[in-house]
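Batch job 17 of 40 flagged for manual review because the log was empty.
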Amino acid sequence: MRPARLLLFLICAITLLAPAQDDADSSTKTKIAALEGLWNQAYKAGDIKALDQILDEAIVLVNDDGSVQTKADFLASVKSSNAHATGQQQQVAPESTTVHVFSNNTAVATGVMRVKGVENGKAYVRRERFIDTWVYKGGRWVCIATDATPITQ
């Protein structure tokens, strides 16, 4: 009888904890989706301070052409393109975003974005798939890695 009672107790405990985990995951998903939106808005506006707050110091940014940037490189490129108004990417608009929570301190956002810009003097519009990795660090969520890949279909 004891093993059956213990098993029943464990099942009940797990059942009671599951909604709490779902609530925490839901809250994290909402926060990360909001940060993704903030990132897009800050990028469009050239808001270096906002970008600085949401990007980790050691972030790895992999661009759609395969090049890699540090945080300092990325912020400098945003500042430069904002100052010259002929920036490579003039608009980034998310079409979809899905957030996957892996623990209480790690989440991954994936989705598709539409990018408009000018390259070699020619205007372009393309869709890209992105993946951003977020970590809860120092009392806030920060992006530690990002990658964008053009959708060629």
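Reviewer: the log was empty due to a logging misconfiguration, but the result itself is present. The helical segments are 2-45, 48-54, 71-84. Unflagging and moving on to job 18.
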